[in-house]
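testing teh design pipeline on a random one, pls ignore if ur not involved
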């Protein structure tokens, strides 16, 4: 039989040429030796021992804890881009990136030369208006009153003389001794003298009555307006020194000395240190609306970061949803005094929310599940074989596949529902090497 197989092959190899012929002979020799050395096929196909499996009893869990893990981000409780309210030329920047500053610490100074000049001008105006007010409040001096009294007497005498002259000219005019022109001049001079006398008398009465209240109030208002302008200017000069609104760390510096800034332009970015004295760190995490509806301020929430577990307290649940993720922002703060490594702004934290689900479900080991059809899962139930294992090493049970739906799972356990019943035994591990209908041998059984 060997000759019958090898002879046609040798003739075909000779037709391929010297090199191919040598290569073909080598392959033919190797195949022949492998065929001669192979064990008997009947020995390779002899029956083997059935697979050995371990099982456990299925029981209803009576509800389970649904745990959801979310990734949160540590944020500074307060962050501000600090700038000058008035703007101007930056004279000095007193901090740099990474510096820790206390509240009210000077950060930068603006040039105040124009403000100082304006303040000097307002001070001069205030001094002048204040002197006027003091003069009005003191009233007329005795010397002024005496001088005005003398002026009244002089005007009185002048008026008397003018009237006497007018009377004599009137008599002469009646006797046709003077002209009409002379009479008119005498008469008008008398009236002018009486008017001057009345004016002098009125001014004397005003001096004797003192300053009017309206004048005092108006001048006092002018003085107060200048004082307010001076105070406003002092505020502007004080604001030329930009101070830290709270204790924190300088995250960024945007300007250097000599730059001209518009009002409100940022000079530095200041962030409250999460592990500083400003309060417990704040964690922001986005959750689905159904979870947000169940959360309340004050709820305790476990968190984990850098391999360390810690406790957080829910501080706020916002009422809006973010446009990008459509989740509801939730804010938490680490519990005061909780032992923890220092947090950094922007660090990621695992936030764990737990909800009790009261639903009849079966608790199965994750290792007992294998992938089924149409997105479902399946497990294997063992059914005993009559007289199984009588020989000592034979099969004792048959595997039956049961389709289940996974409701929830954690690190080791899956909570499922499906066509399984309480009290049945399932294979709890090694299901990847099993198929429905396979006969197995159960050597280990775990209770509920």
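output:
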């Amino acid at each position: 039989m060997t000759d019958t197989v090898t002879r046609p092959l040798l003739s075909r190899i000779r037709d391929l040429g010297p090199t191919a012929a040598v290569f073909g002979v080598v392959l033919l020799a190797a195949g022949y030796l492998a065929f001669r050395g192979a064990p008997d096929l009947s020995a390779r196909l002899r029956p083997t021992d059935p697979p050995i499996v371990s099982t456990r009893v299925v029981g209803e869990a009576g509800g389970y804890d649904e745990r959801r893990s979310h990734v949160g981000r540590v944020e500074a409780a307060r962050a501000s881009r600090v700038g000058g309210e008035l703007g101007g030329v930056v004279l000095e920047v007193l901090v740099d990136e990474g510096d820790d500053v206390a509240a009210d610490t000077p950060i930068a100074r603006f040039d105040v030369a124009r403000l100082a000049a304006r303040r000097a001008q307002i001070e001069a105006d205030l001094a002048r208006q204040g002197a006027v007010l003091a003069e009005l409040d003191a009233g007329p001096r005795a010397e002024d009153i005496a001088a005005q009294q003398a002026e009244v007497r002089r005007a009185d005498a002048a008026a008397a003389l003018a009237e006497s002259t007018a009377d004599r000219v009137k008599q002469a005019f009646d006797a046709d001794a003077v002209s009409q022109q002379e009479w008119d001049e005498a008469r008008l001079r008398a009236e002018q003298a009486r008017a001057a006398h009345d004016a002098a008398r009125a001014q004397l009465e005003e001096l004797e009555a003192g300053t009017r209240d309206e004048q005092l109030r108006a001048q006092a208002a002018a003085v107060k307006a200048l004082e307010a302008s001076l105070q406003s200017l002092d505020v502007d000069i004080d604001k030329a020194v930009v101070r830290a609104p709270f204790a924190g760390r300088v995250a960024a510096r945007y300007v250097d000395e000599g730059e001209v800034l518009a009002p409100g332009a940022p000079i530095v970015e200041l962030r409250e240190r999460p592990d500083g004295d400003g309060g417990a760190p704040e964690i922001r995490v986005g959750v689905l609306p159904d979870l947000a509806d169940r959360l309340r301020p004050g709820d305790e929430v476990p968190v984990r970061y850098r391999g360390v577990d810690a406790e957080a307290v829910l501080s706020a649940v916002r009422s809006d949803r973010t446009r990008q993720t459509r989740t509801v922002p939730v804010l938490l703060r680490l519990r005061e005094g909780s032992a923890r490594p220092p947090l950094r702004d922007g660090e990621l934290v695992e936030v764990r929310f737990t909800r009790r689900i009261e639903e009849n479900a079966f608790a199965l080991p994750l290792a007992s599940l294998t992938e089924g059809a149409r997105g479902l899962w399946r497990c294997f139930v063992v059914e005993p074989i009559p007289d199984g294992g009588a020989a000592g090493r034979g099969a004792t049970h048959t595997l039956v596949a049961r389709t289940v739906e996974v409701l929830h799972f954690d690190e080791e356990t899956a909570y499922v529902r499906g066509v399984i019943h309480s009290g049945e035994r399932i294979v709890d591990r090694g299901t990847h090497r099993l198929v429905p209908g396979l006969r197995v041998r159960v050597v280990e059984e775990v209770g509920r």
